[in-house]
Design goal:
It contains 10 helices and 17 strands. By secondary structure, the chain is α/β, with parallel strands linked by helices. It starts with a helix and ends with a helix.
């Protein structure tokens, strides 16, 4: 990417307002020192001694973290947490971030706070080793009153922001933030303001979603298209182009070590190759960094190709951050894009 064009796009980030609608969770890391290992006198089982607890927003919060790292001026969060200790820690972590607005982040006694607890053994001379994760989730449908509050917040914000991201992170449909009623509100917002970039990502796949900007991997694209996509990049480009034409929206497909593909409603497609790895990697959070970068770039007026280049660089930066769910800053992107081209 031309350096002048890079600066032209990224200097606009500070003036952007972006809404993130979705399942915010608490990422809680337990740093374990193996040199302090013990055996429980009561049970005879190994004891992992935690020397530090780190809390940060995860899931939709990882997108938020990346928007903040990019210097986006205002980020409005839409979601919920429970009236519990995890909710207190999550809200505290959200409110500590610059430019983040939590007026539409609802606290409720009807939900537990979505939490990923990640025990990490920090070996003195090696990469962190993650033990079995401990999760807290909701297993019943989101109450209608809470759903209505979220839907109202979506429609209100759609008139105020420059981009919107929708992330559905739950395993069971209807148990999180992005319920059918909330999706209907997103769809109405998209129809009323067709120029607003609204990016959608769902861990269960995007089938049944209204026409939005879809961000997915190759497997999710195949599931959405209803048949095998093929293994080549050209196969992915062709299928993505068909999807964009039918939806009337951009589409983005991540291809791991093969980079990313983007398509437009007019049939245009672009492919950007992945950067070579530069040592050990951890792919956790890479997709969310891509989503944040795409939303920021599109809101700032980047082209399809430019958006892919920026998002691809963000993913490369994040996967090299071990033992945490990483972020990519504009300075990181500038250094990587200046140091090596992707084709």
């Amino acid at each position: 990417m031309d350096p002048r064009r890079f600066d032209e796009i990224t200097t606009r980030y500070a003036g952007l307002r972006v809404a993130v609608v979705g399942d915010f969770c608490l990422d809680r890391y337990f740093d374990i020192d193996p040199r302090k290992a013990e055996v429980s006198l009561e049970t005879g089982l190994a004891v992992h001694n935690v020397t530090r607890v780190r809390c940060q927003p995860g899931a939709a919060g990882t997108i938020l973290n990346n928007l903040v790292a990019l210097g986006v001026g205002e980020v409005h969060v839409v979601g919920f947490c429970g009236e519990d200790g995890e909710g207190w820690a999550l809200r505290r972590a959200l409110e500590a971030l610059p430019g983040v607005h939590t007026e539409r982040f609802f606290e409720t006694s009807d939900r537990a706070t979505f939490t990923y607890t990640k025990p990490l053994v920090l070996e003195p001379d090696g990469a962190p080793v993650e033990l079995n994760r401990i999760d807290i989730k909701n297993w019943t449908p989101t109450p209608p009153k809470l759903e209505a509050r979220i839907a109202s917040a979506v429609e209100e914000l759609s008139t105020l922001v420059d981009a919107m991201v929708v992330l559905d992170q739950v395993d069971i449909e209807g148990t999180g933030v992005v319920t059918r009623g909330v999706l209907d509100a997103v769809a109405r917002s998209g129809r009323l303001r067709a120029s607003l970039p609204i990016l959608a990502d769902c861990r269960r796949g995007l089938r049944g979603y209204p026409p939005l900007i879809f961000k997915m991997n190759a497997g999710e694209l195949a599931a959405l298209s209803g048949g095998p996509v093929g293994t080549s990049v050209e196969d992915v480009r062709r299928t993505a182009a068909e999807l964009s034409r039918s939806q009337g929206r951009l589409a983005f497909v991540t291809l791991a070590e093969r980079g990313m593909v983007g398509s437009a409603p007019d049939g245009r497609t672009e492919h950007v190759a992945a950067f070579p790895t530069r040592g050990p990697i951890d792919i956790v959070g890479a997709g969310d960094a891509v989503t944040a970068s795409l939303a920021s770039a599109l809101a700032a007026g980047a082209s399809l190709r430019e958006s892919l280049e920026l998002a691809n660089a963000a993913a490369s930066i994040v996967i090299h951050q071990l033992g945490t769910t990483g972020t990519a800053r504009v300075s990181d992107l500038r250094g990587l894009l200046a140091g090596g081209a992707s084709s």
